[in-house]
Specification:
Layout lengths: L2 H36 L4 H13 L6
Helix pairs in contact: 1-2
Length: 61
């Protein structure tokens, strides 16, 4: 294994790691948003989340 191929494999491993971190953060934020709006006692916040789902053609019923 020469030095050039070794540096390429390290680079792709680092990119995959960063992509997994970004995906995990997006999932965490998305789940937090859904549960915050979905189980909110505030009718305004709940209805805003509900209307947003309908605006994006996402079935929620």
């Amino acid at each position: 294994m020469n030095a050039q191929s070794y540096s390429v494999s390290i680079s792709s491993a680092g990119q995959r790691s960063e992509a997994l971190k970004a995906a995990a953060l997006a999932l965490l934020l998305g789940v937090g948003l859904v549960f915050t709006a979905g189980f909110s006692h505030s009718a305004t916040l709940h209805n805003a989340g509900h209307d947003t789902r309908h605006a994006l053609s996402f079935p929620c019923h």
